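User: For my dataset I need records formatted as: sequence, then structure tokens, nothing else. Please produce one.
Assistant:
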Amino acid sequence: MGSTDDAISLARENIDAFSRGDKEHFKAQLTSDSVYKEYGTGREEHGAEAITATTWTWRDAFPDARGEIVNAFGSGDQVTLQIIWTGTQKGNLVGPAGTIPATGKQVKVPACQVVRVRDGKIISTDHYFDSMTMLVQLGVAPAPAASMT
């Protein structure tokens, strides 16, 4: 994969594999030394196995999780995806701050991923998502006060 269009296709396919629950295909798209940074939780994982394991904790908590890509653009080997994550929390959400028991509530969370590819595989993903919106929608954090502007 040498073109920006190829890199965008690979990044999209990785989101689609997650949305389908296709763990093996998701993992196969990562290099063995891939790095994943999850800015909403502060987690960082190295290697396809660890990244897939961490990513699948989200599917355990939100078995119907889906990523809708609303914008994608790239330059060379880097791609930026604007994503809307949706799902229903039917399982425990395990994270670095503890566990949130299943709430049965639906979430709709805006996110962005910056993905870098090498030789047709994903070498790194920086995942930025609005964790506060998710926590408010799950009912475990208070809604922010109205803006003063």
